[in-house]
Amino acid sequence: GLSQYSSDPRTEWDLSTYSTRDQVLEAVRNLRYKGGNTFTGLALTHVLEQNLKPDAGARLEALKLVILLTDGKSQDDANLAAQTLKNLGIEIFAIGVKNADEAELKQVASEPLELTVYNVLDFPLLSSLVGRLTRVLCTRIKEKSNKENADIPVNMGPQLSPTDLKISAVTSKSMYLTWSPPLRPPKKYRIVYYPSKGGIPKEVLLDGAVSSLRLSNLTSHTEYLVSVFPIYDTVVGDGLRGVTSTLPLSSPRSLRVSELSHNSIRLSWKAAQGATQYLVLCSAAPDGAED
């Protein structure tokens, strides 16, 4: 499988798209280079959520390897995203070209770094790495193949994904999520949520035995996108997705004016639920306006 990235990662083909070596090599020859920015953290998250899942061809019993090829320093937090992958047992090999930051490559890559970090001065020199990298990758797979869970059956994709996401108890600042767990309980759940019109994604990690969550400290009157991903030892199951809007803040009601004098008035109103203070604005009405 292969994804390219700049500021927006793009899957070129999934793990299950081609079944022969010649087909993969032909796809590489036809690949169009994607220029642009270098958001490596976003790309690693894309690979985890989109490429390393059962319906994209990721087999539970197979060792998961990610080979990162970059020619620049990341413009976001690549280390945090890489650590998420490594915590799930996914091995990362980091290959730098030209202006790549070697310190960042070493942060992103799995141990031992002498086998997983490579750096060359220009793209044509990548060919010099092919033989060694191939041997290292095959050796790592052989070393770990006996340690993988041999009792995990193949083609369990539908059994790995939660179902029936429900969003309830929505207020101006919070909402409550519930879902039905998959047949095979995950190790953890990763819940990602953010405003649909743009905003920084936030995430929560939950124990795999839990299947509900209250999201709080949200922005009022805002549409949110919510995703729930089940995380297993070596794979991320298909996610559940939902969308809902928080309620607008409640308003004060029934404004009344009383006790008028030549330089004062008294105002009264019904309280707005949850309000801690009120801002009262007063200005002279323009000539001819209603009192």
Q: Would you give an account of this structure?
A:
- This protein is α+β, with helices and mostly antiparallel strands.
- The chain has 2 domains: 2-148, von Willebrand factor, type A domain (Rossmann fold), CATH 3.40.50.410; 154-274, Sandwich (Immunoglobulin-like).
- Helix content is 20%, strand content 27%.
- The chain has helices at 21-29, 40-51, 78-87, 102-108, 113-116, 130-145; strands at 2-4, 10-13, 65-70, 91-97, 117-120, 163-168, 175-180, 188-195, 202-207, 212-215, 223-231, 240-245, 253-258, 266-270.
- It has a 4-stranded antiparallel β-sheet with strand order 9-8-11-12, with no helix packed on it.
- Helix 2 runs parallel beside helix 3 (78-87).
- Residues 149-155 have low confidence and may be disordered.
Descriptive labels:
elongated; three-stranded parallel sheet; 14 strands; alpha+beta; four-stranded antiparallel sheet; 20% helix; Immunoglobulin-like; Rossmann fold; 291 residues
